[in-house]
Amino acid sequence: MSIPADYTHRVYAGVLGKLIGVYLGRPFENWRYKDILQKLGPIEYYVHDRLGDPLIVTDDDIAGTFTFPRALDDYGISPDLSAEDIGKAWLNYIIEERSILWWGGAGNSTEHTAWLNLARGIKAPASGSIETNGATVAEQIGAQIFIDGWALVSPGNPAQAAKLARAAGSVSHDGEAVHAAVLWAAMEAEAFVSRDVDHLLDTGLSHIPADCLIARLVADIRAWTSGNEDWEATRQKIEDNYGYDKYPGNCHVVPNHALMIMALLHAPHDFQRGQMIVNTSGWDTDCNAGNLGCLHGIMLGLDGLEAGPDWRGPMADRLYISSADGGRSITDAVEIALWLANLGRTLAGEAIVPAPKQGATFHFSLPGSVQGFRPQPGETALEHFTVTGTGEALALDFTALAPGRQAAATTPVFTPVDVLKMRTYDLMASPRLHPGQRLSAVVRAEAGLSGTVEAKLRIRHYGADDKLVEIDMPDGKMLSAGDEAVLEWTVPDTGYQPIAEVGLVLTARSGRASGRLLLDRLTWTGCPDVTFRRPAGAGDFWRRAWVSNVHFFSKHFPQDIRISQNRGAGLILQGTRDWTDYAVEADLMLHLGTYGGLVLRAQGQRRYYAARITRDGELQLVKRRDDTEEVLARATLSIPFETGFQMVAQAEGDRLAVTVGAVSLEARDGSFAGGAAGMEVHEGALSSTHIRIRPV
């Protein structure tokens, strides 16, 4: 089947629907129906502020959904992608007890149990099977909540979605949990080409056993909703027949799947009503609302999301994906949608669509997209200032901009301050932007602009007390009606602190300016020239900038950076996959361990190059790829514990090199084209007083 003409927009709507549902349901996850009605009333809109939570949070529903399809990139874009390969992606991207999953303990959390099985060498699908884990653990909700990505890459191809969903779901689940996931994925895939809910259900049912419990549940709910507009009566029947008291475990799939089917049947073409029903009904609200929101988004498109209240404005496309590939953690719905859509095209045998505007990071090319940009608050912030997406650019509308006031719009490129308020899920992320990189933007003043404005690029970085500090480019561009300008600026040093936001600030040197300025694109190029070390002050975001799977990462030793690993290998990483040709320079000291050294081009915690010294007296260049380590080059070099040494490692094209003192090694390998840099130690401790990244 050919790709629908509006495929990209429908993927975008599906991603947005998923996010809206999760953000809506997350603050009262696991509440019961009566408690929700008593304390919140029917859930018609976001309630996070009433419960003291941020709107945009890390969440397993989001992180897992948009991390696991990376297995297609890593192991081959094919509908025959195996459960075993998806399991490898779990081990590469999920940091134990820190990212993506609910780490509730073996036998409590199905996903934690499956991850432990994978780490022990039990490959998928055995890692999630009933035979390995028992029916109770295997049939909780998790397979379903992560399933939307496989449908989004399978437009109009429910058989492919079902196949990929079955492989993905079986990494951690089995039985009815996998049936539910397969049914929903097939329905979502078919929703690209049909708005007939009964047809969608029949399509989903055709991919699961006719005599399974999920199939019987669907039949019951169809009967209960036929000719019945009272969703609360249907909910009561679900509680009476399929409620939590009927199924063991913390969060069984059956009751929650029932609520999703009910909400879809009672609100087949109404996004807001569907969200109200599924959220007010309680139980695993963010999971259920996220799955329903994605299906409704695909089926109804962007118009369906915008038929009710302004869901998109407060969200501003933002999402966080906490994983070991920290340079991809701070992202947005546009970036995710374009990536998934091109995976879908490749699976369908069609050509991918080139990245908009020569690959600009922020291009605002989807309808209404703002890619995280919002007005920056502050004492001098202009009151009458809005930020909206035109589908071609970011519109900055302002009234009465005058000296002493500013209109600034920024977007996150690293962990926000709100992370300190987030419950349950950690955010593992590293900054997307660093000193030494070249920022650029294209701006246009519309014809109706009155007065003259000055436009400057802005970064905001963390300071000594973890408060944000602004730096603006020194020389901006003056714009009057009809003018266009290119802003370019090399990101300056930030005192070893991570950059949190990037954006644009408008001011008026004299008089008053009102009108609209369009930000056509904003991006950056090049590898950074940056030094990492402990900055002055008591702040901690500099340390959060390192994605870490080590057991101990201290900031209280004399050395600026010191890591310790109790079992196996541990890493700290910082950087993005845009870092291709670069050198890493560091003064290191191995205090104890089998080996220690520097990491290059890391794409997660099990796919990278390393330059290391070993306890046995060798200097090595190594490639780690999943379960396999290959020594690419080696030389004799003995450095005792507690002895400092300087190491320079670099990657340029397929050439890898390392130098320690008078000893140098080279090797050739083209497995990893780009990725993060960092430190690695095996069962010991390693420290450094500085790590410098520079282009080569």
TrEMBL record:
Binding site for Mg(2+): 58-60, 284, 286
Cofactor: Mg(2+)
Cofactor remark from the record: Binds 2 magnesium ions per subunit.
A single MF term (Gene Ontology): metal ion binding
UniProt entry keywords in alphabetical sequence: Magnesium, Metal-binding
Any Pfam family hit: ADP_ribosyl_GH
Manganese in keyword set: no
UniProt-recorded name of the protein: ADP-ribosylglycohydrolase
Organism: Xaviernesmea oryzae
